[in-house]
């Protein structure tokens, strides 16, 4: 198989024997996890169980102390196709003193699709507009992102990932601090992504309205996998109804 055809068929994430050490403490131990294309996987577990650490390690944002992890068949260091991956972190990164509008943050989700030779295009602007509408923030596009509430900032981060139109979404507690109406809206968005065959890895405390969309769960406790469930993908009917 050529390396490019391997990248097409390799699973979005594959970790084997993953260990992560932070400040000398083993925070993740013996993690074996393959996320297949089309999975909607919830990573569950109590505070401090290692959920955020796991998704950061899958993305190569934290190094493994031992074991191996791959993104579409490549180690994070060798992986180049970042347009295929959208990450929703828990928090808006500190602005470094540079105020950014909501639109600018969301537009940054298109950067992996742009280059010196292909600067921002009508398709980019369209994707940003649609993402803002999807999260209900089109009316706040010119506002400073850092002045929004925590829940609204999460919606900005979700929009940033949506704008990039990736194959895989990794969302770290996207519903924490988000009001009930926005949680329902996010469930609707996830339903559309799942129906379109996108892969979703979702860190959550409670699943709430997204529960019917999940086909796998991974439960962490003290840095180890303590439980796993898997079920056939749920047939997706009209919003709010599973067939
Ligand atoms: N930079 C760090 N240095 C040392 N320990 C850390 C660091 N970051 C996280 N930890 C510890 O690693 C453990 C796992 O943290 P992590 O944030 O991955 O848990 P979590 O399951 O996502 O929790 P929460 O639900 O509270 O977000 C915790 O005990 C945490 O205190």
From TrEMBL:
<dbReference type="InterPro" id="IPR027417">
    <property type="entry name" value="P-loop_NTPase"/>
</dbReference>
<dbReference type="InterPro" id="IPR017871">
    <property type="entry name" value="ABC_transporter-like_CS"/>
</dbReference>
<dbReference type="InterPro" id="IPR003593">
    <property type="entry name" value="AAA+_ATPase"/>
</dbReference>
<keyword id="KW-0547">Nucleotide-binding</keyword>
<feature type="domain" description="ABC transporter">
    <location>
        <begin position="13"/>
        <end position="243"/>
    </location>
</feature>
<keyword id="KW-0067">ATP-binding</keyword>
<dbReference type="InterPro" id="IPR050153">
    <property type="entry name" value="Metal_Ion_Import_ABC"/>
</dbReference>
<dbReference type="Pfam" id="PF00005">
    <property type="entry name" value="ABC_tran"/>
</dbReference>
<keyword id="KW-0378">Hydrolase</keyword>
<keyword id="KW-0813">Transport</keyword>
<dbReference type="GO" id="GO:0005524">
    <property type="term" value="F:ATP binding"/>
</dbReference>
<dbReference type="GO" id="GO:0016887">
    <property type="term" value="F:ATP hydrolysis activity"/>
</dbReference>
<protein>
    <submittedName>
        <fullName>Zinc transport system ATP-binding protein</fullName>
        <ecNumber>3.6.3.-</ecNumber>
    </submittedName>
</protein>
<dbReference type="InterPro" id="IPR003439">
    <property type="entry name" value="ABC_transporter-like_ATP-bd"/>
</dbReference>
């Amino acid at each position: 198989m050529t390396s490019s055809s391997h990248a097409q068929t390799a699973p979005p994430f594959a970790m084997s024997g993953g260990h992560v050490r932070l400040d000398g403490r083993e925070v993740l131990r013996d993690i074996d996890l393959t996320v297949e294309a089309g999975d909607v996987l919830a990573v569950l577990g109590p505070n401090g169980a290692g959920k955020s650490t796991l998704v950061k390690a899958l993305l190569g944002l934290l190094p493994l102390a031992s074991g191996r992890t791959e993104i579409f068949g490549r180690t994070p260091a060798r992986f180049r196709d970042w347009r295929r991956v959208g990450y929703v972190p828990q928090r808006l990164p500190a602005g470094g003193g540079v105020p950014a509008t909501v639109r600018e943050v969301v537009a940054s989700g298109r950067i992996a699709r742009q280059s010196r030779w292909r600067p921002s295009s009508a398709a980019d602007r369209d994707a940003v507009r649609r993402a803002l509408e999807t999260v209900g923030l089109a009316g706040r596009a010119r506002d400073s992102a850092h002045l929004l509430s925590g829940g609204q900032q999460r919606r900005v981060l979700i929009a940033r990932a949506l704008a990039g139109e990736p194959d895989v979404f990794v969302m770290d507690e996207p519903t924490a601090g988000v009001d009930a109406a926005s949680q329902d809206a996010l469930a609707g968005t996830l339903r559309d992504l799942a129906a379109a065959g996108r892969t979703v890895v979702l860190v959550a405390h409670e699943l709430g309205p997204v529960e019917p969309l999940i086909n796998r769960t991974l439960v962490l406790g003290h840095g180890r996998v303590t439980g796993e469930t898997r079920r056939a993908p749920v047939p997706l009917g009209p919003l709010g109804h599973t067939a």
